[in-house]
Amino acid sequence: MKQAILAGLLLGMAPGAQAASVVPNFTTGVVTSETTSRTEVTEVINVVEYSNANSYTVTGTNINIPNSPAPGVNYTQVNPGAPFQFTETLMTPGISSVTDMTRTSITDSYTMTTSVFTQ
């Protein structure tokens, strides 16, 4: 019991705790941040082109092409027996071309930011 009384007296006479002010002790600092990102975009392209009229084309070399070419016209050689080339194309209304394509674009980016501060 005597010990408890003595401890109480000693604690009562002890000075109270004091708060100390906190002052930063740095003068400069550097913060570095790094960001990496990747973006991937996939595009699917489907194109169907239609023609709504007739199209007739005639080309060639060493061929006599009249002023009004048309399907079924009798074309003749300019120099019979000599080499020649002849192309006749008739396109009627309907699908003229189809394009199916898949395209993927990838973008990688990297950003590094450095901040310097002083007190």
Set down the secondary structure blueprint.
Elements: H1 2-13, E1 28-51, E2 55-61, E3 63-64, E4 76-77, E5 85-91, E6 94-118
Antiparallel strand pairs: 1-6, 2-5, 3-4
The radius of gyration computed from the alpha-carbon positions, rounded to a whole number of angstroms, is 46 Å
Report helical residue fraction.
Answer: 10-25%
Provide the spatial order of strands within the biggest beta sheet.
1-6
Instruction: Give the integer mean of the pLDDT values.
Output: 86
Shape estimate? rod-shaped
Overall SS class:
mainly beta
The major beta sheet can be summarized as: 2 strands, antiparallel
How many DSSP E strands?
6
Order of helices and strands: HEEEEEE
Please give a quick description of this structure.
This protein is mainly β. The protein is built from one helix and six strands.
Structure description:
By secondary structure, this protein is mainly beta. The protein has one domain. Helix content is 10%, strand content 56%. The protein has one helix at residues 2-13, and strands at residues 28-51, 55-61, 63-64, 76-77, 85-91, 94-118. The strands form three sheets. The chain has a two-stranded antiparallel sheet. The longest helix is centred in the first third of the chain and has 12 residues, at 2-13. The two termini are 56 Å apart. The model has no long low-confidence stretch (mean pLDDT 86).
